[in-house]
């Protein structure tokens, strides 16, 4: 885990309240894995607390880190106002990311809404290890899925769903997952998105005897196991999302 000041090289609105920030990284570039997060602090912001933001992508050639985030409160509002050339302080990478030490497997990646944040790097890590990836991406509407234009999906079978049918198939990702798992044998499912969606994805995976890794979201104050802000009850006892997760085996959270 590192603490470093990074220069912001772009910070653009993607759609609605969502933004993509790119920063020049240094120490953390080689250590960062999909599913991990950083605590970001704006130097000139009104709030003192750091904000936990998932890593969206690591561009090793350019030494850049990408963060896809949603403006929800003062901390993320401060983040959205950072200009090119300014510095932010980042602490990370933190937490346990997705386990991608697998090769030549058949994988489904399911992302919903802001759960798209860790998927760009996850898909790249999976493809690098010669896995075959089906990506089910869902959101409320086409705006919620605008971030997909920032993905590299050339070698990925991408299935898009939206609640209002403005992009892809009208419907939900869990319905699409059922279809996909019915038609072909898969080894693993990775998911991130709204809680209810991940519960459904975990349950469907279990019913089909497929292992599933879920990336949970929790309120985080410290990000480093020093408070109790992110504790959750699981079948394996109390867990701290920032330290034990944010990625967990779905079996410990699904009833
Ligand atoms: Fe403080 Fe996890 S955020 S312990």
Model description:
The structure is a single chain. With about 260 residues, the chain is of the alpha/beta class. It contains 5 helices and 16 strands. It has 2 domains: about 1-95, Translation factors (Elongation Factor Tu (Ef-tu), domain 3), CATH 2.40.30; about 105-215, Nucleotide-binding domain of ferredoxin-NADP reductase (FNR) module (Rossmann fold, 3-Layer(aba) Sandwich). Helices cover about 20% and strands about 35% of the residues. A 7-stranded antiparallel β-sheet has the order 4-3-7-1-2-6-5. The longest helix is centred in the last third of the chain and has 13 residues, at about 195-205. The chain is globular and about 50 Å long.
Short description:
This protein has 255 residues and is an alpha/beta fold. It has five helices and 16 strands.
Number of domains: 2
Q: Assign the CATH architecture of the largest domain.
A: 3-Layer(aba) Sandwich
For the largest beta sheet, what order do the strands appear in spatially? 4-3-7-1-2-6-5
Helix/strand structural class? alpha/beta
CATH class of the largest domain: Alpha Beta
Coarse morphology: globular
Tally of separate helices? 5
Helix content: 10-25%
Largest sheet, in brief, is:
7 strands, antiparallel
What is the helix/strand order? EEEEEEHEEHEEEHEHEEEHE
Task: Kindly estimate the percentage of residues that lie in beta strands according to DSSP.
Answer: 35-45%
Find the CATH topology of the largest domain. Rossmann fold
- Radius of gyration, CA atoms, in whole angstroms: 17 Å
Per CATH, the superfamily of the largest domain is: Nucleotide-binding domain of ferredoxin-NADP reductase (FNR) module
Q: What's the N-to-C terminus distance?
A: 33 Å
The bound ligands are: FE2/S2 (inorganic) cluster
Q: What is the averaged pLDDT score?
A: 93
Sequence stretches where pLDDT stays below 50 over 5 or more residues = none
By DSSP, the count of extended strands is 16
């Amino acid at each position: 885990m590192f603490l470093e000041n990074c220069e912001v090289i772009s910070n653009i609105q993607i759609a609605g309240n969502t933004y993509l920030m790119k920063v020049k990284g240094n120490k953390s570039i080689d250590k960062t894995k999909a599913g991990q997060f950083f605590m970001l602090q704006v130097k000139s912001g009104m709030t003192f607390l750091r904000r936990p933001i998932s890593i969206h992508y690591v561009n090793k050639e350019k030494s850049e880190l990408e963060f896809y985030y949603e403006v929800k409160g003062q901390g993320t509002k401060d983040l959205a106002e950072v200009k090119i050339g300014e510095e932010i302080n980042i602490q990370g990478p933190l937490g346990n990311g997705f386990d991608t030490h697998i090769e030549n497997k058949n994988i489904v990646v399911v992302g919903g809404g802001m759960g798209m944040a860790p998927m760009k790097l996850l898909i790249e890590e999976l493809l690098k290890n010669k896995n075959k990836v089906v990506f089910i991406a869902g959101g409320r509407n086409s705006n919620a899925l605008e971030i997909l234009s920032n993905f590299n999906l050339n070698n990925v079978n991408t299935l898009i769903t939206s609640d209002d049918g403005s992009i892809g198939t009208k419907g939900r990702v869990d319905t699409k997952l059922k279809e996909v798992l019915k038609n072909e044998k898969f080894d693993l499912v990775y998911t991130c998105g709204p809680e209810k969606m991940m519960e459904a994805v975990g349950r469907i995976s279990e019913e089909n005897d497929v292992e599933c890794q879920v990336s949970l979201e929790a309120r985080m104050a410290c990000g480093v196991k020093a408070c109790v802000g992110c504790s959750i009850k699981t079948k394996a006892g109390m867990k701290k999302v920032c330290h034990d997760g944010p990625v967990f085996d779905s079996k410990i959270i699904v009833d």
